[in-house]
Design brief:
Mean pLDDT: 94
Bound molecules: iron/sulfur cluster
Low-confidence stretches: 1-5
Largest sheet: 5 strands, mixed
Strand content: 5-15%
Number of strands: 11
Number of helices: 24
Strand order of the largest sheet: 3-5-4-6-7
Amino acid sequence: MPDQERPRPASLKDLAEHLLSLDDLLVSCMRCGLCQAVCPVYGSTYLEADVTRGKIALLENLAHETIKDAKSVNQRLNRCLLCGSCQTNCPSGVKIMEIFIKARSFVAGYLGLGPIKRLIFRQILPRPRLFNLIIRLSGFGQKFFIKRVNQTVNAFKAPILNPFIGDRRFPSLPDQSFSARHGLIDSEVGSSNLKVALFLGCAPDKLFSGLSEATLKILRYHKVGVFASPDLVCCGLPVLASGDSQGFLRLTAHNLKELAKSSFDYLVTPCATCAANIKENWPRFMDRYLEEEKKAVAALSVKTLDVTEFLVSVLKVEFPPTTPAPKAKIVTYHDSCHLKKSLGVADQPRAIIRSLSDYMLVEMPEADRCCGHGGSFSLFHYDLSKDIGQRKRDNIVSVNPDLVVTGCPACLLQLMDTLSRNNDQIAVKHVVELYADSLPISR
Ligand code: SF4
Ligand code: SF4
């Protein structure tokens, strides 16, 4: 059934029926409570309703109509980073991410979308040229209201924005997005005999355009053909996390159409969140795609890779460990949840860092504990997000590094905020930027 025709739950009874479709997944929870120990939100609040077991109990009660307050359940469901820590540690193998993603979609479908989310998800994200124009105008106008607050972190603040984004520190916008600067890239297969679709997603394209340039430089250096379309749009995770499955499916359909304009061996991205979403969440909605979309989604789920995994596992680039130079900078590595827990990528970024003699890798405690960003979670639960981020910050500072490196733009944002808030003089980089800096300009 085409998505537009799919009815959303119109009454509590409808909602209960939708949730009952998750009953087989819900009953697999044995209530052991082992998810408590790893949940960053529970680690901050110590509230049972914030941990997976509590959320599952609420959903079961809503499904069986023993509670009727869908709004409260929605609020509890949204107090979750979708970090996957609970799923990774669940001894019963409960498909927690599938439950949370689908339940959010049912409950938000029943409650409806707010006007701001509707505007962003349905009008701005699907229109890449409009989105680029907004970024360009904001990039021009930002000099009138942002102020640099930490030189090393390169973070800014803007009190005028506090009512919308809290007292947050953030990177400045580039003059223009990567996609606006480059337009269509469609280069021939080089001596690697491989061609990739470069999927940048919103943050690397529009906010961290230097990261996108670094990724392109690496692919060109290794003679990989690249297809990058300026008409690709958001991967859809922020939309899906807000429960707007219809908006998510529109973005996915748009991206599938764009990606069909070229043939490629792999889809590669420097954004762990995009990679995890394309591999795991796009296929979760198979029953809502058209036939040709189903095939494309299944194929992409297999051939989507984080760029470090592509370099190590597919291109077989060797990254032999080197002895750090006498003045090597101390770097510590933060495992993004989407990179490690969703994609299983943890050794590859570390191998790259260890191969660079300008850096000495020192592991921080709890390197794979969530940083607390969680996309829109940090926007709607900023105090909680800051609290979770503080533990990450303390772990980083404990090894006294010159810089902290990670593999996901969302973590970059959180690390920049939490370090500059504490006035720490620690730079924040993506691992791809370190590797690109070590390469000659062209070969
Ligand atoms: S660890 Fe798994 S089985 Fe145990 S309470 Fe949490 S979700 Fe349920
Ligand atoms: S996904 Fe993360 S934040 Fe959400 S319940 Fe599981 S461990 Fe907690």
